[in-house]
Amino acid sequence: MTATTVTPVPRKAPRPRADALRNRERIVAAAREMFTEFGPEVPLDEIARRAGVGNATVYRNFPDRDALVREVVCSVMDRTVRAAEQALSETGDAFEALERFAHTAADERISALCPMVSSTFDRSHPDLEEARRRVEALVARLMDRAREAGQLRDDVEYGDLMVGVAQLSRPPAGTACMNADRFVHRHLQLFLDGMRAPARSALPGSAVTVEDLRR
């Protein structure tokens, strides 16, 4: 009798349960809020409490603080990219998509998260690099299209946009976050209008590039 060789059927990796995914999302949302309010050194126990989960659930999803900070930063970048992509697909107007990206970035408190990228962990982590490249590539595409359509002035670059968003969405020193929120989108729109073509004045200095921001 000839022996028959049975090829094992590869088992699919189990999909995370829906409740586990919801817990992870709650942790990331709570961490984003608390990092914005108190900085990246906020105790993880406090994040667990705000998320409504146990400490063990936080550590099961994120083995250390760096992993959680990185996830928060990447999730913020991903949401801002999706907002701009959606705007571009809905309107086809590159400058409107650029505006939606900027306002979404302000809502996501990107100004509070940027310092965490440069000071708390490995800036070259592949996940962070990939998220950053997606943002840079999309914004560059939007700016190029807006410029080709005669909507964007010629003397501004990616770095000008990101510095403006960060500065205008950061509460002034000594001002409570909630009190400053009501001014953010008004002043951000004034800034964005200043990027429109035709230019009303000559800008001092040179355009701020991606390379300038990475230095």
UniProtKB/TrEMBL annotation:
The keyword Transcription applies. The keyword Secreted does not apply. Residues 21-80 form the HTH tetR-type domain. InterPro entries: Homeodomain-like_sf, HTH-type_TetR-like_transc_reg, HTH_TetR, Tet_transcr_reg_TetR-rel_C_sf, TetR_SbtR-like_C. It holds the Pfam family TetR_N. Keywords: DNA-binding, Transcription, Transcription regulation. PROSITE patterns: HTH_TETR_2. GO terms for molecular function: DNA-binding transcription factor activity; transcription cis-regulatory region binding. Residues 43-62 bind DNA. This is TetR family transcriptional regulator. It comes from Streptomyces gancidicus BKS 13-15. The lineage of its organism: Bacteria, Bacillati, Actinomycetota, Actinomycetes, Kitasatosporales.
